Amino acid sequence: METLTSAGHSLYFESNLDALKTLLESNKYSKVFVLADEHTSEICLPLFQSLLDDFSEFDLIETSAGEENKNIDFCIGIWKTLLDFEADRKSLMINLGGGVITDMGGFIASTYKRGIDFINVPTTLLSQVDASVGGKTGIDIDNVKNMVGTFTLPQMVFIETAFLKTLPERELLSGFAEMIKHGLIYDKPYYEKLKASNYLIPAAEDIYRSVEIKNEVVTIDPHEKNLRKILNFGHTIGHAVEGYSLANDENPLTHGEAIAIGFICEAALSIKNSTLTKEELNDISGYILSLYPKYHIKKESFDTLFELMQSDKKNEDGNILFSLLEKTGKCTFNCRVSTANILSSLDYYNSL
Amino acid sequence: METLTSAGHSLYFESNLDALKTLLESNKYSKVFVLADEHTSEICLPLFQSLLDDFSEFDLIETSAGEENKNIDFCIGIWKTLLDFEADRKSLMINLGGGVITDMGGFIASTYKRGIDFINVPTTLLSQVDASVGGKTGIDIDNVKNMVGTFTLPQMVFIETAFLKTLPERELLSGFAEMIKHGLIYDKPYYEKLKASNYLIPAAEDIYRSVEIKNEVVTIDPHEKNLRKILNFGHTIGHAVEGYSLANDENPLTHGEAIAIGFICEAALSIKNSTLTKEELNDISGYILSLYPKYHIKKESFDTLFELMQSDKKNEDGNILFSLLEKTGKCTFNCRVSTANILSSLDYYNSL
């Protein structure tokens, strides 16, 4: 077992959930609730229980899978369920699932009776390398991602790679995009290592390095006043494309597919508004397109995408602010970019 | 101007809002929003603006007055309004009103885009001596008070007694109950002083003392792990009666009227389950009934009241926990009380 101390809580990389077992046996909590979606309750919960010696002293709260259900209606339903089940301030909530579960479960726990303890057990690659670290909780409102939320740290986070074996290829690729991002913004050798690796069998040490990078950044700047903004590289355009796709496409893009588009567009912005070279852009675009399916960003969606970018949380004084690459492995933030350049970056992606 | 430093923010007692003027002129904020209800926007906003040299650089968000509107639907509406008005993370929200506005406005601000700054300008006696201090934000769900909320400190709190001149007598009495509570749980001489005072013209120094007591308690225990629970004296039964009345009475009890009933019932519990004397109970009951109208707690409401008490946030492991008086001016907490004693305390109140 390896342990990484994050700002105020512990991250456990392990195969036996020992620390959780000890905590549950300590009788610190009056009741334990496990939040899962219909998939994780079927596929991950049995493994989770077996890793905890057939742990069964909990109430299961099941929600529907999918980003479209990370909304206030589900929150209200779960708050009321907690009340019906007589959850008090000494109750514990264990969020077992992907980012939807850990984001929403964290928000619910951090606000129920003004806050109860929660533990995240991310079961997807995406949530292991992204949502697991940094204390962001949140829900979407009207397709605006994480419009409402808190900064609240879980008591513990468990990263158990055994859960990944249950994931379909498309899910693995989605999480892999965040790992690529960590390389692009912070660690060029790691980016090169990932390029040579097989995303279908992500190595535990690569997952560890990704979590380590994110943890380093959020420990320096927990409330995203400055440095933490670099983690949003690819996300200004990526989130907009993701929101649009979710609302309009029959088979919407995954988060990773959307931010991968964002990487290309924002790398294109980086050669105009920062110091990235054309060669580096070509390398990034080539690698991304070798992994992720090409998407067509419709001309008629540009206005909507632009509106979605305007509600991005990084913005200030009405300006859309980007995090851009200075070079592969180094990122800057608070970059103002002209509307024309934003639009031409979308055109650039389409032209590939 | 007097200033009291609370845990992490400043409380200003003053007549000119100088510190706020300086803050607003500093250009620290990209946009300023004022949240008010239909009464405070009409009655208090002009005074507020004049105290700030006719301040007008803000967007007004108006909500409906009354506890029944401190709900998630209004929150959703206001979150969306903030988004429509392009509020970003550098926006400031000023909550101008009573406890409904400061509780709900604080919750909205503490969760919008994971938290923006807010300032409380309490305009009722109740919110000046209670909601103004301690960083509790919250909304009600299904008549369960403050079921969802956060502990988040405002940047500043301004206590301006000029607002009180606009209040009807019943509102003043409602706030006065919290002042009486501060005396009962923490400061017998202050309680005796209040008994000799005129609640219709609350003295600034008495308001100050009340805020000081609350501030002392919440600074020691901001997250209500122990000592802060004494501030709930009268509230376990009081909140239940208030919730029941809100749902069933044509002219519901005010918060102060409800907790005043709670003071009597819980003082009656205190002679059985703590060390309060019968003489002290008689003194408290006599004083409360000289100020507050007698209410009849219906026999058929007892079950519902009991259920409401069971969802009280102080409870642990299914036990209803009370804060009880050891003597006038001293309070203890985490007291378990039998169901029979709870019911007979309601009978005691009815018998007066």
From TrEMBL, chains A, B:
Required co-factors: Co(2+); NAD(+); Zn(2+)
InterPro entries recorded: Dehydroquinate_synthase, DHQ_synth_AroB, DHQ_synth_fam, DHQS/DOIS_N, DHQS_C
Domain 3-dehydroquinate synthase C-terminal positions: 175-315
GO-annotated cellular components: cytoplasm
Top enzyme category: lyase
One record GO biological process: chorismate biosynthetic process
Keyword Zinc among UniProt keywords: yes
Domain of life per record: Bacteria
EC number, UniProt record: 4.2.3.4
3-dehydroquinate synthase N-terminal domain residues: 62-172
Gene3D superfamilies in alphabetical order: 3.40.50.1970, Dehydroquinate synthase-like - alpha domain
Molecular-function annotations in GO: 3-dehydroquinate synthase activity; metal ion binding; nucleotide binding
Alphabetical UniProt keywords: Cobalt, Lyase, Metal-binding, NAD, Nucleotide-binding, Zinc
PANTHER family named in the record: 3-DEHYDROQUINATE SYNTHASE
Job description of the protein: Catalyzes the conversion of 3-deoxy-D-arabino-heptulosonate 7-phosphate (DAHP) to dehydroquinate (DHQ).
Protein name per the record: 3-dehydroquinate synthase
Upper taxonomic lineage: Bacteria, Pseudomonadati, Bacteroidota, Sphingobacteriia, Sphingobacteriales
Gene: aroB
